[in-house]
């Protein structure tokens, strides 16, 4: 089997790596950058730090800092107009997945026009746009290393999945120090999102030898450090592991796929306003339990890579490993205070009238078809 692998062409990794931004802009030939930032990055002074550090390099840096959490198509209109009007030749995306996904959509529309609806799956976005340097400030989505953007359609209330090599950032800066200010709830939701990416990529029907290795490395980094990174924000070792684990998980799923958890969580997120990582976490133990029979040996390997069992096959049975895996996923949700769906107000009665829409949106993303066990 031959697989196409897509990665950012330059990555700077480590505490303080953001100081390398100017070198990256110069390498990419970007002279008129626009910063696409989460508003909290202005409040925290990070945008000002960037503009002043680049003042000798570029004195006309544009800033769009109205990034919307879980962005929709309308939220990026102003930025698309700004980038076109100012003839910006590259974007610096600073924030969590919402800022990086917004930047991907802004670069695409500013370069090629149209509406995000025109680019959603099954269309493959192969057109190259102005380059993006992605600087994540959450350890979660891995969007800095994925050929994916997720933008909601404000008309149809669909979280549109857009995919293709043209959406891969040209460069990424993985500086865990930027995540030290993340509040507990965001650290937990984003960390659980990264874990979901690693597990889904590993068991996906589209997994391959490259994505498997990224997923294994991500699981081995995330499992022992997730709770510490959330409960002790000064634990530098845990924060660094989570940043690296989240990006590796992004590389894994972007070069394989996500599966049923993501297919179902996008409609939950958009219709019930559950943050993306939290909706994945709510579903992960249930969907994993449902899917075990589709790939018993791979799920036993997941348990092993999460540190729950000895080498799969050497001792114990798949059933033992599966039980430990499901227990661990429930334990993580309890430890990290993930609400149950019903405590979040998601009852059967509340989705009865939109269940068909949610199901059709889940199926349209293609993700459920990559699950080890495909729901009928
Ligand atoms: P986010 O970007 O929405 O950020 C969550 C919250 O954390 C926001 O309120 C933000 O202001 C705050 N925040 C971010 N960084 C901070 C910091 N350093 N200090 C303090 N506060 C900070 O959350 P996210 O989970 O990173 O991204 C979610 C979005 O990413 C969703 O729209 C989801 O669909 C998308 N997503 C994309 C991909 C992809 O591959 N493109 C993958 C998974 C999810």
Could you explain how this protein is built, in words?
This is Iron-containing alcohol dehydrogenase. InterPro entries: ADH_Fe/GldA (IPR001670), ADH_Fe_C (IPR056798), ADH_Fe_CS (IPR018211), Alcohol_dehydrogenase_Fe (IPR039697). It comes from Alteromonas genovensis. The chain is α/β, with parallel strands linked by helices and 376 residues long. It has 2 domains: 10-179, 3-Layer(aba) Sandwich (Rossmann fold), CATH 3.40.50.1970; 184-370, Dehydroquinate synthase-like, alpha domain (Up-down Bundle), CATH 1.20.1090.10. It has 14 helices and 8 strands. It has helices spanning 21-28, 39-43, 46-53, 77-85, 97-112, 184-203, 209-231, 236-254, 260-272, 276-291, 296-305, 318-335, 348-351, 355-364, and strands at 10-13, 33-37, 62-64, 90-95, 132-136, 148-153, 158-163, 171-174. Helix 5 links the parallel strand 4 and strand 5 (132-136). The protein is globular. Bound molecules: nicotinamide-adenine-dinucleotide (NAD). Nicotinamide-adenine-dinucleotide binds next to helix 5, strand 6, helix 6 and helix 10.
CATH topology of the largest domain: Dehydroquinate synthase-like, alpha domain
Low-confidence runs of at least 5 consecutive residues:
none
- Number of folding domains? 2
Which word captures the global form? globular
Mean pLDDT: 94
Oligomer: single chain
> Proportion of β residues?
5-15%
Helix fraction by DSSP (H/I, runs of at least 4): 40-55%
């Amino acid at each position: 089997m031959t697989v196409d692998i897509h990665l950012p062409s330059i990555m700077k990794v480590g505490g303080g790596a953001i100081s390398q931004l100017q070198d990256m802009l110069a390498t990419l030939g970007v002279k008129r950058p626009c910063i696409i930032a989460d508003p909290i990055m202005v409040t925290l002074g990070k945008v000002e730090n960037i503009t002043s550090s680049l003042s000798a390099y570029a004195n006309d840096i544009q800033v769009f800092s109205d990034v919307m959490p879980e962005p929709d198509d309308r939220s990026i209109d102003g930025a698309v107009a700004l980038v076109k009007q100012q003839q910006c030749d590259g974007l610096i995306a600073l924030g969590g997945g919402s800022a990086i996904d917004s930047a991907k959509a802004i670069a695409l529309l500013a370069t090629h026009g149209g509406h995000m609806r025109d680019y959603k799956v099954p269309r493959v976005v192969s057109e190259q746009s102005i380059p993006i340097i992605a600087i994540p400030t959450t350890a979660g989505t891995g969007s800095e290393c994925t050929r994916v953007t997720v933008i909601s359609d404000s008309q149809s209330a669909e979280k549109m999945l857009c995919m293709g090599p043209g959406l891969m950032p040209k460069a990424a800066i993985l500086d865990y120090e930027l995540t030290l200010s993340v509040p507990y709830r965001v650290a937990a939701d984003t960390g659980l999102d990264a874990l979901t990416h690693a597990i889904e990529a590993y068991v996906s029907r589209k997994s391959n030898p490259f994505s498997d290795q990224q997923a294994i490395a991500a699981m081995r980094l995330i499992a022992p450090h997730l709770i510490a990174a959330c409960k002790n924000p000064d634990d530098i070792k845990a924060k660094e592991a989570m940043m690296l684990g989240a990006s590796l998980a992004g590389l894994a799923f972007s070069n394989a796929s996500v599966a049923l958890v993501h297919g179902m969580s996008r409609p939950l997120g958009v219709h019930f306003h559950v943050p993306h990582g939290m909706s994945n976490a709510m579903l992960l133990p249930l969907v994993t339990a449902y899917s075990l029979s589709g790939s018993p040996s791979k799920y036993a390997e997941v348990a092993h890579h999460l540190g729950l069992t000895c080498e799969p096959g050497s001792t114990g049975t798949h059933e033992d490993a599966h039980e430990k895996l499901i227990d661990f996923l429930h334990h993580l949700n309890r430890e990290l205070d993930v609400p149950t769906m019903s405590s979040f107000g998601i009852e059967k009665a509340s989705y009865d009238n939109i269940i068909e829409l949610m199901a059709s949106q889940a199926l349209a993303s293609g993700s459920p078809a990559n699950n080890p066990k495909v729901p009928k």
